[in-house]
Amino acid sequence: MAGGRLATWERRADPALTAAAVAFLVAYAVPIIWPELPVTIRDTCEVLTWLVWGAFAVDYAVRLMLSPDRRAYVRRHLLDLAIIALPLMRPLRLLRLVTMLKFIDTSAASRLRGRILTYVIGGASLLGFVGALAVLDAEREVPGGNIDTFGDALWWAFTTMTTVGYGDRYPVTTMGRFVAVGLMVGGVTILSTVTAMLASWMVERVRADVAAEQVEAEQRRAGEN
């Protein structure tokens, strides 16, 4: 019974929480990209981020209460708990935006490869943008830092994701390095998915070509006979 209520809550809450995560992204990104904004706008964005944090906290509490095994739920959702409990980890709240990919998927191509491609493109773009915001938030105006603009942050994020790592930009703070580790892991995962998808496509093409050649050969033999 509790499991059914939990599933019902998740089904109803996920769209609203995804919208809240988008609002958080906007409120989090605007002051970082445009630091010269008036104080009133910056304060409004800060209030909005805390309201979204409150929504996530309420959602976590409700899911915990509805879970049939609360200890197991906590163990399976340690990252969610850390994001709520540790204010310094607020950039990680942007991970909630990954839920948007479920809605993107509903309009994707019906074939599995089309859905995978949608996830890869959406995930890579989101990961790079979020990583750039998070590292700029951590590194800007830090003594010895070298990531001072959003352009620098985007360049660093995508070179890190693709494992190129030129070394011209790099984080010097602890939070910035945590972001770097996340981007490295995410980038390797995405590249592995792309490689596997391309390999699968090439194998299918070769099999299709071989099958077509076999059919043509059989037709020629049948015509000769």
From TrEMBL:
Annotated GO CC locations? voltage-gated potassium channel complex
Protein keywords: Ion channel, Ion transport, Membrane, Transmembrane, Transmembrane helix, Transport
Among the GO biological process terms of this entry, one is: action potential
Spell out the InterPro entries in the cross-references: K_chnl_dom, VG_K_chnl, Volt_channel_dom_sf
Name all Potassium channel domain ranges.
147-203
Q: Which domain of life is it from?
A: Bacteria
Q: Which GO terms describe its molecular function?
A: voltage-gated potassium channel activity
Describe its membrane topology: Multi-pass membrane protein
Localization, per the record, is: Membrane
Q: Where does the sequence pass through the membrane?
A: 16-35, 47-66, 116-136, 178-199
- The primary site where this protein sits is membrane
Its recorded name reads Two pore domain potassium channel family protein
Organism in which the protein naturally occurs: Propioniciclava tarda
